Amino acid sequence: MDKLHSPTTSNPNILIPVHPAIENYMRVLVSQTDHPILTEMETVAKKNNFPIVGRLVGTFLETLAKTTNARRVFEFGSGYGYSAYWFAKAVGQEGNVICSDGNPLNKENAEKYLNSANLGSRISFHVGLSQEIFSKTEGLFDICYNDVDKGQYPEVWKLARNRISPGGLYIADNVLWHGRVVMENFVDIANGWTEAIMEHNKLIFNDPEFDAFINPTRDGVIVARRKTE
Predict the structure, then answer these.
(1) Contact 98, 168 (CB under 8 A)
(2) pLDDT at 10
(3) Each residue's pLDDT tens digit, 117-146
(4) What is the pTM of this model?
(5) Residues 91/73, Cβ–Cβ less than 8 Å
(6) Burial 134-144 (b: 16+ CB within 10 A, else e)
């Protein structure tokens, strides 16, 4: 393997799809528009080892939402509102980002952060199992965003695909799963998660109603657009 695609020396069970120097360069470019709240949320994530999509993927999410003129977004797994921050910026004052997470403390923190960024009125945060919250929420969505436990990815895709507006997007994080999807031998965080992600990805790329692509930045983000024909 060449340097760009070899395992990291510190962890042989991880592959880095995009060279760290390239990601650092990109991060410098997008960090020119820091918001104090965004920086605080990133500091908290680093301190507590809390998984967030990070600045590059966040900017990507905002760009996708603006490109599709998204006004209604559903998040399967919202943490303390980091990804919702980017979607809320994109949907505008009349838009709505429906957040879901099983931890009440995440709801409290998300509302605190997003209110401080003057984005709180654009979100509604629900505590509980994301799939159940989604099933109780009526209507179509311009974007369904998936970042729940990875073993649940195929289930979320099957739930979400029929509720996406024509021209709308399904987006999921961690679809390369630190390179485990291409390893013959890997150590998983939880039993079956890698297989679930691989099944999820295959389902999407084999779906004739969607066009799909994987952005390999960070841990891989899949974007599937519902066809309008």
Answers:
(1) no
(2) 56
(3) 999 999 999 999 999 999 999 999 999 999
(4) 0.92
(5) yes
(6) beeeeeebbbb
Q: Residue 184 corresponds to which tokens in the numbers above? A: 């013959």
Q: What's the confidence (pLDDT) of residue 12?
A: 62
The CA distance from 110 to 106, in Å, is 6
Helix (H, G, I), strand (E, B) or coil at 56: helix
Q: Give the model confidence (pLDDT) of 61-119 as tens digits.
A: 999 999 999 999 999 999 999 999 999 999 999 999 999 999 999 999 999 999 999 99
Between the alpha carbon of residue 135 and those of residues 76, 139, 174, the distances in Å are 11, 10, 23
Residue of 12 and 207 predicted with greater confidence: 207
Write down all domains in the chain, each with its CATH number in brackets.
Answer: 3-226 (3.40.50.150)
Residue among 155, 93, 84 nearest 126 (CA): 84
Cα–Cα distance between 137 and 20 in angstroms, integer? 40
Token pair, residue 128, equals 């509980």
User: Position 29: which residue type?
Assistant: L
Closest CA to 218 of 20, 2, 13: 20
